[in-house]
């Protein structure tokens, strides 16, 4: 290692070996020497001298620097880049800080692969605290790659090396950035090879707004890609039985606009079975007579179901839509069904030969009683079949089917009428989350194989596979109009996929950790997601940006988000011992109409969090709103 | 939030170079002096690689933990993460619960301790009615009702910040009172001082016990009651026996019970003060008769009978001349009656039973109580307590035996020490005899191995 590099890497002392000076004085002006001089100038912040020297020597920008010196330059270049950012205007400083992580990461990797691990370590130790906090986890992951051999196996490194890191900055900022690039060779190569800069008209007003864009593994999602797709986010009237009638009167003018965003009924084939139609009539009947509203003025009533004696733990739960059955997925791979109403116990369908004897022309109401075997009625049922903790459960809307996924990498479809396993899908990796479509028939899954998948109940193979994620798909939710799927992933992105085209139509970045819970609002326009650090974000599909974030929360195990039936309020449990209620309606009323040219998410806005109820020692695993808007919390004691 | 770790080899490495070297030497590939020696760099890389693999396994296991909704990582999560990386499962440790050791006496004299290994009868397990593990069941309760957290034990009732509304006048009042006090302190005598200071102290209200409703008894019953009570406490012995027999067997006493218990209660309270031993014994005999009467339900009057009986068991002074009067008989009789009463009539009130035991136990364990008082507690304690509870009393039991033996044996004791002994030689002897009587049942109820058996004492006392 040359003396010059030592002076750069060392304690930053400006002492130069006198013998070296003599050497330089004796030598002819070679390009190599020139580079050294320039590096020396840059190191000591002699910018004007450096520029003058470069100009005089006729050093063009495209000139590739010599091998050994390039390595030493990387560190000096990053230092000068940091200095440049610090010297920039406040407004630009925040935006420019978006670049810090990718440049840092690629500089580090360059040093690691091309120079030496020790060099990379020196670089890391000198600069890692300057990287924004949003990238903390990634920086730590990079630090684990202490040898090139280890780094090659690392997924983050592979990702950074294979994909472009995208950032979105304003035009003024881009102009400023160009100036830095002119002088900074390392930055130039990294920008050219690895970073994609997109110009945007959207102004990020303050540092907070910029910080809430950071966190994604590959920076911003590309806006250009997303603009190609139009999202029909609204929900048809027939699919939303719980519409607040008070609202309908006031917002008739907006209705037309909304109608345009409703996907046509035949966009994807949506079967509506007779059973479901009957169920919906029942739903509407209940909603019109006995529904209570929950908002800031009307606090909720919450009923807790605490599972006792669950030694292996309750790893998932779901409640059927009409709140008649609770299903628990246990840590010991069993699924237990419980009848909530003691008078309506779980009955099995009669055997086939007995069913044949029933006269089909009896009234449907009576028929329903006839086909079930009264002798089989009991309060609980156990479904055995999985061989691993059951990670997710979901009833189909007319509670005839139950879908479950477990650690044994299978998805199983159960018939609630016969209490038998009907279909087994055997996959290669565990599936974390399964959700039925609001009309039944379709269901979507997200799993450790980094894909979200759409299945139907009558086919063995998946209908769509969405392979866009760079990490496990930890949670999925079906859009209420059944045309889209929302998914949260460990790569910190929230994505929206179109079931028809199979394309990823929206990607939202801003979470700082993997996503642990996702839900689309019943109106179809907003997505609520929760990250591992407990941060709750509300995204607007229409304007493609974050509306608000709530950070006053605790670390999350697996979150459960449930909207009230009319969709104004939602309840959240972080998998820990509390239930929190937020008012989406208040949020939209106060902050929904944002200026289109300014990006300004609200952080912890007033009136958003409306209620908070702690439980004693029972982590709340699942939530459910009954049709009357009574909140049920299901937990397992001391889990 | 995670903490920044430096990427240095030694800072957070799970495996450091030295350990890898040790591994290499263990399996004989370190090479020693030969040319195939593994270089330091290779060790370094291996250490880092291994550390990385371990960290990745932990990260993966964390994912399984999160999706299984555990608050803590389980062994199964780690196993699953290992399976994903096609790593053979590590051999786990299974810690068996500590079984009891059985001693085998060797001919050479040294004992050998072995684990008892018995075959399990599979039929017994299959036929047993109790299911294990217990089935998961739900407990349903309100967490919040109309927004208010429901005040039940399942919920975390929030601490309400009770802010006392201080009215404007109140501090002024206090200041005036304080000024008055200061004046008094300067001038007047202690009595007036006391009166002024105690003026503002709120009088403590005793817990209001609902007075038993005066039953309207028929004239015959009133006359019967009067004659029975007179006979019971009278001087005529055959009449008393007849009266007690009548109380024991009469089936129509239930409505007279409140009055009867009231008489007993006031009688005992008065006679304890008067130290009239004989009347106390008569009254306890009445209680005994009542508690033996199968047709009576004593639960409504237990709050009068139990304290009275306890007084007779553990009263400090029950007679005028403790040296000559046989108050031991009263204590004996009362404690036996107490056992009968508790066993016969307090079955459905476990908390009452516990309260009786607790108050007896308090006396038994109190080092300031006299031997006479402790004497009354021994029998009911040994009859009412469970084996487990008795085990807790064992140290005190032993200590008492030692003390009594020391005093009653008549050995020369330092008079200074004797002063602290709560009883005379005779009392100690009495207590010792009753303690020794309870010794054997107590020992039998104990599981061997938990306590040290005081062999020397028992041998010396020639009990066994």
Automatic annotation (TrEMBL), chain A:
Alphabetized GO MF terms: RNA polymerase II general transcription initiation factor activity
Positions of WD repeats: 383-424, 473-507, 508-549
Alphabetic keyword roster: Nucleus, Repeat, Transcription, Transcription regulation, WD repeat
Stretches assigned to the TFIID subunit TAF5 NTD2 domain: 71-187
Xref: InterPro entries: LisH, TFIID_NTD2, TFIID_NTD2_sf, WD40/YVTN_repeat-like_dom_sf, WD40_PAC1, WD40_repeat_CS, WD40_repeat_dom_sf, WD40_rpt
PROSITE patterns for the chain: LISH, WD_REPEATS_1, WD_REPEATS_2, WD_REPEATS_REGION
BP GO annotations: transcription initiation at RNA polymerase II promoter
Transmembrane segments: none
GO cellular component: transcription factor TFIID complex
Cellular localization per UniProt: Nucleus
CDD domains the UniProt entry points to: WD40 (cd00200)
Pfam hit, one: WD40
Domain of life: Eukaryota
Similarity section: Belongs to the WD repeat TAF5 family.
PANTHER family linked to this entry: CANNONBALL-RELATED, TRANSCRIPTION INITIATION FACTOR TFIID
Name of the molecule in the record: LisH domain-containing protein
Species this chain originates from: Mesorhabditis belari
UniProtKB/TrEMBL annotation, chain B:
Statement: the UniProt record of this protein carries the keyword Transmembrane helix: no
Domain TAF6 C-terminal HEAT repeat, chain residue ranges per copy: 216-388
Gene3D superfamilies: Histone, subunit A, TAF6, C-terminal HEAT repeat domain
Keyword Transcription: yes
TATA box binding protein associated factor (TAF) histone-like fold domain ranges (all copies): 18-81
A biological-process GO annotation: RNA polymerase II preinitiation complex assembly
Cellular localization per UniProt: Nucleus
Xref: Pfam families: TAF, TAF6_C
GO cellular component, one term: SAGA complex
Alphabetical UniProt keywords: Nucleus, Transcription, Transcription regulation
Transmembrane parts of this sequence: none
GO MF assignments: protein heterodimerization activity; RNA polymerase II general transcription initiation factor activity; transcription coactivator activity
InterPro entries reported in the protein's UniProt record: ARM-type_fold, Histone-fold, TAF6, TAF6_C, TAF6_C_sf, TAF_TATA-bd_Histone-like_dom
PANTHER family cross-referenced by the UniProt entry: TRANSCRIPTION INITIATION FACTOR TFIID SUBUNIT 6 (PTHR10221:SF9)
Family: Belongs to the TAF6 family.
Protein name: Transcription initiation factor TFIID subunit 6
């Amino acid at each position: 290692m040359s003396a010059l590099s030592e002076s750069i890497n060392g304690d930053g002392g400006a002492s130069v070996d006198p013998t070296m000076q003599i050497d330089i004085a004796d030598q002819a002006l070679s390009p190599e020497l020139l580079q050294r001089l320039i590096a020396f100038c840059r190191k000591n912040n002699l910018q004007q001298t450096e520029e003058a020297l470069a100009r005089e020597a006729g050093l063009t920008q495209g000139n590739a620097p010599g091998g050994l010196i390039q390595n030493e330059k990387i560190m000096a270049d990053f230092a000068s880049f940091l200095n440049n950012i610090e010297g920039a205007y406040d407004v630009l400083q925040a935006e420019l800080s978006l670049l810090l992580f990718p440049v840092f990461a690629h500089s580090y990797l360059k040093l690691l692969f091309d120079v030496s691990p020790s060099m990379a370590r020196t670089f890391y130790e000198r600069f890692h605290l300057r990287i924004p906090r949003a990238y903390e986890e990634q920086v730590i992951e990079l630090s684990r790659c202490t040898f090139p051999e280890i780094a090659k196996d690392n997924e983050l490194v592979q990702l950074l090396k294979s994909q472009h890191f995208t950032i979105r900055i304003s035009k003024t900022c881009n102009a400023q950035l160009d100036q830095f690039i002119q002088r900074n060779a390392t930055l130039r190569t990294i920008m050219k090879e690895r970073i994609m800069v997109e110009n945007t008209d959207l102004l990020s007003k303050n540092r907070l707004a910029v910080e809430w864009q950071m966190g994604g593994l590959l920076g911003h999602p590309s806006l250009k890609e997303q603009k190609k797709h139009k999202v029909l986010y609204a929900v048809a009237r027939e699919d939303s039985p719980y519409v607040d009638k008070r609202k309908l009167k006031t917002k008739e003018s907006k209705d037309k606009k909304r109608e345009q965003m409703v996907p046509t009924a035949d966009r994807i084939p949506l079967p509506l079975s007779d059973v479901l139609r009957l169920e919906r009539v029942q739903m509407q009947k209940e909603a019109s007579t006995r529904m209570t509203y929950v908002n800031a003025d009307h606090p909720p009533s919450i009923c807790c179901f605490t599972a006792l004696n669950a030694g292996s733990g309750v790893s998932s739960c779901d409640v059927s839509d009409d709140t008649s059955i609770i299903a628990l997925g246990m840590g010991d791979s069993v699924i237990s069904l419980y009848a909530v109403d003691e008078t309506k116990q779980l009955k099995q369908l009669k055997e086939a030969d007995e069913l044949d004897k029933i006269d089909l022309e009896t009234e449907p109401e009576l028929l329903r009683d006839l086909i079930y075997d009264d002798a089989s009625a009991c309060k609980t049922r156990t479904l055995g079949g999985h061989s691993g903790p059951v990670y997710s459960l979901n009833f189909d809307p007319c509670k005839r089917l139950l879908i479950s996924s477990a650690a044994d990498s299978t998805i199983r479809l159960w018939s609630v009428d016969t209490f038998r396993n009907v279909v087994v899908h055997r996959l290669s990796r565990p599936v974390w989350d399964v959700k039925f479509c609001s009309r039944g028939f379709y269901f979507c899954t997200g799993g450790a194989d980094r894909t979200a998948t759409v299945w139907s109940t009558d086919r063995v193979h998946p209908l769509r596979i969405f392979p866009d994620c760079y990490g496990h798909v930890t949670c999925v939710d079906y859009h209420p109009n059944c045309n889209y799927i929302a998914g949260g992933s460990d790569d910190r992105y929230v994505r929206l996929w179109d079931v028809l085209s199979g394309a990823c139509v929206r990607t939202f970045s801003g979470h700082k950790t993997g996503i642990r819970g996702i839900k689309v609002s019943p109106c179809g326009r907003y997505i609520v997601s929760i990250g591992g650090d407990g941060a709750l974000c509300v995204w607007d599909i229409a304007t493609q940006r974050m509306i608000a974030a709530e950070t006053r929360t605790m670390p999350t195990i697996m979150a459960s988000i449930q909207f009230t039936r009319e969709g104004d309020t939602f309840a959240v449990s972080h998998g820990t011992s509390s239930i929190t209620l937020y008012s989406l309606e208040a949020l939209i009323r106060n902050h929904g109409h944002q200026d289109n040219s300014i990006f300004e998410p609200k952080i912890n806005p007033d009136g958003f969090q409306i209620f908070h109820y702690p439980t004693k020692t029972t982590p709340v695993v699942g939530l459910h709103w009954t049709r009357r808007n009574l909140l049920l919390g299901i937990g397992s004691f001391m889990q | 939030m995670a903490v920044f770790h430096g990427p240095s080899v030694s800072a957070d490495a799970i495996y450091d170079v030295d350990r890898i070297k040790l591994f290499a030497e263990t399996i004989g590939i370190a090479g020693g002096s030969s040319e195939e020696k593994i270089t330091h760099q290779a060790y370094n890389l291996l250490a880092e690689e291994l550390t990385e693999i371990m960290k990745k396994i932990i990260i993966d296991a964390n994912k399984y933990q999160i999706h299984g909704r555990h608050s803590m990582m389980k062994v199964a999560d780690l196993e699953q993460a290992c399976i994903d990386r096609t790593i053979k499962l590590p051999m786990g440790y299974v810690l068996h619960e500590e079984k009891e050791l059985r001693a085998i006496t060797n001919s050479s004299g040294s004992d050998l301790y072995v684990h008892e290994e018995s075959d399990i009868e599979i039929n017994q397990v299959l036929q047993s009615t109790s299911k294990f593990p217990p089935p998961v069941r739900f407990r349903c309760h309100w967490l919040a009702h109309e927004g208010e957290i429901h005040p039940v034990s399942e919920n975390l009732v929030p601490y309400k910040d009770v802010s006392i509304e201080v009215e404007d006048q109140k501090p002024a009042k206090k200041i005036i009172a304080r000024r008055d006090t200061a004046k008094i302190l300067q001038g007047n005598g202690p009595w007036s001082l006391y009166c002024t200071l105690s003026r503002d102290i709120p009088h403590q209200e005793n817990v209001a016990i609902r007075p038993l409703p005066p039953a309207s008894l028929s004239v015959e019953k009133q006359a019967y009651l009067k004659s029975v009570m007179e006979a019971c406490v009278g001087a005529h012995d055959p009449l008393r026996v007849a009266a007690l027999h009548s109380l024991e067997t009469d089936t129509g006493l239930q409505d007279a019970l409140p009055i009867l218990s009231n008489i007993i209660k006031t009688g005992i309270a008065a006679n304890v003060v008067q130290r009239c031993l004989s009347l106390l014994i008569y009254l306890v005999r009445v209680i005994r008769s009542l508690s033996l009467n199968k047709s009576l339900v004593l639960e409504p009057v237990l709050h009068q009978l139990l304290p009275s009986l306890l007084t007779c068991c553990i009263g400090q002074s029950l007679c005028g001349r403790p040296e000559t009067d046989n108050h031991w008989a009263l204590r004996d009789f009362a404690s036996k009656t107490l056992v009968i009463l508790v066993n016969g009539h307090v079955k459905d009130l476990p908390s009452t039973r516990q309260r009786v035991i607790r108050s007896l136990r308090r006396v038994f364990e109190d080092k300031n109580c006299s031997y006479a008082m402790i004497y009354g507690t021994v029998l009911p304690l040994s009859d009412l307590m469970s084996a487990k509870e008795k085990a807790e009393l064992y140290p005190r039991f032993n200590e008492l035996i030692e003390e009594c033996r020391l005093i009653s044996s008549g050995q020369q004791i330092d008079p200074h020490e004797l002063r602290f002994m709560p009883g005379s030689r005779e009392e100690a002897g009495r207590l010792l005899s009753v303690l020794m009587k309870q010794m054997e049942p107590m020992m039998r109820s104990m599981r061997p191995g938990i306590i040290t058996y005081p062999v020397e004492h028992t041998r010396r006392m020639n009990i066994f």
